[in-house]
Design goal:
Shape: globular
Structural class: alpha/beta
Low-confidence stretches: none
CATH superfamily of the largest domain: FAD/NAD(P)-binding domain
Bound molecules: flavin-adenine dinucleotide
Helix content: 25-40%
Number of helices: 16
Number of strands: 17
Largest sheet: 9 strands, mixed
Amino acid sequence: MNETFDVAIVGAGPAGISAAITLANAGIKTVVVERGEYPGAKNMSGGVLYGHDLGQILPDFTKIPGFPIERNIIESRIWYLSKEAGISVGYRDSIFAGERKQNVFTVGRAKFDRWYADQARKKGALIVPATVVLDLIRENGRVTGVQTGRADGDIHAKVVLIADGVNSRLAVTAGFRPDVKPEHVALAVKEVIELAPEIIDQRFGVSDGNGVTTEILGAVAGGMDGVGVLYTNKASISLALGANLADFSKTKLKPYDLIETFKKHPMVAPLIAGGKSLEYTAHWLPEGGYDTMPKLYGDGYLIAGDSAMLFNAPHREGSNLAMLSGKMAADTIIEAMKTGDFSAKSLSAYNTKLSESKILQDMKKYRGFGGFLYDHKEIFETMPEIVQFGGRELLTVNAESKKTKQDKIIKKLRKDMGIPRFVRLMWSGFRAVK
Ligand SMILES: Cc1cc2nc3c(=O)[nH]c(=O)nc-3n(C[C@H](O)[C@H](O)[C@H](O)COP(=O)(O)OP(=O)(O)OC[C@H]3O[C@@H](n4cnc5c(N)ncnc54)[C@H](O)[C@@H]3O)c2cc1C
């Protein structure tokens, strides 16, 4: 290729493509290099996207032909599960089927990423799939391009956007980011289970293309710091389960075994009964939070999305932070193009944009959340069993008075956990999200 561009972007995920669309809109000569056979081929997520944030990049996205929505989400559920039982809390609101339609919706990443990259291509960005970026080209300490795996594959650019995802070998090799520590990432596995749309409608009580998301906490990952999700698509259900990588290496539990057990849980099994497994994928996701974020700019480069460790775990927001950070990186480059200054000082405007936005404000707010879950394994082991005991006691009508039942539950809490430890857990939880 050996060509010169204004901007070279590594990675055609939500971060890279959002930047490419924004740059192409401004007439900036942009190339996106993607190692997958096509954008999305190597990508995986639970599948929830956010209309407001996508709208910042493609204002009329719903009207673009082929927009690959699966279901419009009208209800969000949270489950707290023991091994055999569970509590369910949900919020359903018709506003999300009306004036706030597409506030949250599901997509399949393979389809969505491909469609999204097509929008960048239509606006003039060059997308180069099936090509791995091997290294950054640096001259006098400044990033001036990327070296790809193709013959004559050097691409020179005024600025490089590193959007290569959570593992980000490029940023790590260049010394722009420390290597990922196992306790700062989760390993997630996902299975897509095919079901007829009318069966999904019936099981989740929805119609007209609407759907439900379920976030699942508790004893779903063999006592490890882990969560599950169950999302409705048009004609399938996405079931994913992730746990801290350090916990996986300590326990030697196998993700495949965990998801098989998860599928048999009495709250999960009826929802997927009769379904056919369509695909099974695994991926990391960044969980370290604000304190594990690297410096996001330097001479000739910027870092966006998962590569920058942007993930809001309590709200399972990652793809939208990737999109917005990609857009802000592009806006910074557009400003720098006016002066021709691509130094770290000039590109530091990116950090200002992130700080003034919800991205860094939310990352800071939840900076203690990952550590809180990792340090309090009782959330995943002891507490679910206490909750199950309490649920069974309270809902079993027998000769015992309610006061006797209440005393039994408190006794169980004292014995299994202790009141001071329970109070400490609640207080730490409050501090982690306050
Ligand atoms: C199980 C799971 C569930 C999730 N659920 C949700 C959810 O429901 N909602 C949500 O908002 N977020 C979710 N996320 C997070 C979300 O997927 C990420 O935050 C988002 O994909 C980050 O986008 P990105 O563009 O930064 O990185 P990615 O999507 O990882 O894209 C990076 C791209 O770079 C390419 N690449 C990497 N290295 C190279 C190289 N050397 N050369 C060329 N190309 C390269 C990759 O192939 C990839 O296409 C989930 C993640 C997981 C794992």
